[in-house]
Design goal:
By secondary structure, the protein is mostly helical. It has one domain. The protein is 48% helix and 11% strand. It is built from three helices and two strands. It has a two-stranded antiparallel ribbon with strand order 1-2. The N and C termini lie far apart (31 Å).
Length: 84
């Protein structure tokens, strides 16, 4: 898969879940936390990854959470990062 194909696939998946993504963002916005103290936000992200059946690594740089979406290390990759 080319990088452009991967980009379109990711955009399609994001559009498909736009309402859910917006609800998560709204929740985070309504419950702000200080930098490197986003423990409740990290729990929300972990819960979301569990619901999506994704394995994840938590406590990355204190409150970061990382999930591997595909496991294919031979092709292009994409990172999606959230922050406020």
């Amino acid at each position: 898969m080319s990088a452009e194909e991967l980009k379109w696939k990711v955009c399609k998946a994001i559009r498909k879940r736009a309402k859910e993504i917006t609800q998560i963002g709204d929740h985070i916005f309504k419950h702000p936390e200080l930098g490197f103290k986003e423990f409740e936000t990290a729990k929300l992200v972990q819960h979301t990854f569990k619901d999506l059946r994704l394995s994840y690594e938590s406590e990355v740089a204190i409150t970061g959470v990382i999930a591997d979406l595909g496991g294919n290390t031979n092709g292009p990759t994409i990172g999606v990062m959230g922050g406020a």
